[in-house]
Known about the structure:
The structure holds two protein chains of two kinds.
Chain A: H1 2-21, H2 24-28, H3 30-53, E1 54-55, E2 58-59, H4 63-76, H5 81-97
Antiparallel strand pairs in A: 1-2
Chain B: H1 66-92, H2 97-107, H3 110-121, H4 126-150, H5 156-164, H6 168-175, H7 180-208, H8 223-237, H9 242-258, H10 266-281
Amino acid sequence: MWPAVLLGSLGCYLLKLAGMLVPRRALENPRVLRLSTLAPIALLAALIAMQTFSSGRQLTLDARAAGLCAAAVLIARRAPFLLVVGGAVATSALVHLA
Amino acid sequence: MRRSPHYPAHVERNATARCTETTLTPAPAPAPTQVLAPPTETGPPPRTPLPTQTPHAVPASRAIPAPLLRDVLGIAIPTGAFGLSFGALAAASGFTTAQTCTLSLLMFTGGSQFALVGSIAAGGAAPTATAVAILLGGRNALYGLRISALLRGAPPPRRALAAHLVIDESAAMAAAQEQPAAARTAFWATGLAIFTLWNLGTLLGALAGGVLPDPAALGLNTAAPAAFLALLAPRLTARGARDARVTALTAALGVLALVRYTPVGVPVIAAALVAITIGLRLHPTPTPAPTPAPAPAPTSSPRNPAAGR
């Protein structure tokens, strides 16, 4: 599995580097700016959905969803960041126990 | 919208322009000075992002502000703990300790690492697993666009190191900052903290193997989504953020739709690409970056006139 490990690592690093090496002119293009603004939003939303509602290739509804709900409530109430994360973790653990 | 005193200082909810303008606007050709804003001109908090500050505007002290440090640790510690589960999973899937640690050191992308190990564990062929891991890493290239703008003046070795540290968490923490200097600090602090803790966790997990409690039982697998939601929420609730909301919703629904039909992790990038395309269509004429007025006085005023919009 060393080829997979090393090639995968190299590929991932090259992709990270590619983003960093985009020339400055291109970055000042309004379209590229919009893309780079929307990209984290789309990716974060997708990650949240995947990490909460899926397990492998299955859709699942489990303690993680409860944790995310707790996070959403805490965010709506303007709780500090640490409390949001801690509250979500605690809720998820408690629901998992139940 | 008013800035809540209870919200982390660096995550403001008033970022009206956030979704059409990046806070990391690279300095246009004219000198990147900051305009002193008369406080009476804008009643509500600033609507436009700051032009990039000159390097000299960075505070002399390089110390990380305490609130930011707290938040960085708040996201880094659960991520490091999750490294434990990665180490254990990899060890259980047949990877040697050396291979497991190499993955965390050299690949350093949680999603790709779990996808690679998960694919192999599920019986997938090594080339497929490698391809999925690299494909997932594509999102780091998109993050790299923003980070690259942040690190404009940095020497190539530092940029090469920074590239390695580009991950979901460091990019998200950087994107949540208004000021470029704070974004840089957030990026480096988060990246380095997670690199340290993730690798430590991986090593311990690979060595300890089966004696560790299930991270799901401890609720740790909720830490990342909760943190991402906290970082994402201000971008969605800002005024004029309709395209951001549509993009986010499309991406989330897209993932749920694709999960059963594609290899693990592919839905994230596929749904994100679709969502970004739709989001870009919502604004057919991109708003050009605001050009700073030709006034001198590079002060550290946090306010900006709403002239650009």
